[in-house]
Amino acid sequence: LTEFSRRFFACNPDMFLHVDTALVLSFSVMMLHTDLHNPSNPRRMTMAEFIRNNRGIDDGQDLPKEYLEMIYGNIEAEEFQCCVDHTYAVEQISKRMQGKMAF
Prior knowledge:
The chain is mainly α and about 100 residues long. It has helices at about 1-10, 20-35, 45-55, 65-75, 85-95.
């Protein structure tokens, strides 16, 4: 996350006041993703809680509420996919098309 944050800050110098903001927000996004998409979690973080958790992270200032709402909505809408096995996905679709697997 540290290297990602440094690169993000370098490529977007007007977005945050300090490079640490990108690191804190990156970590917060990972935690939000885990919270929202972990099937073992009985209580999901709300948007208001996510915004509150990120108060003052930009060198003591708040990030725009609309920006945090957009991040929350995007994370909520789609789970991160790492190392998607396209071969497996194609096999599953093929089996469904052949009637060997329930939809």
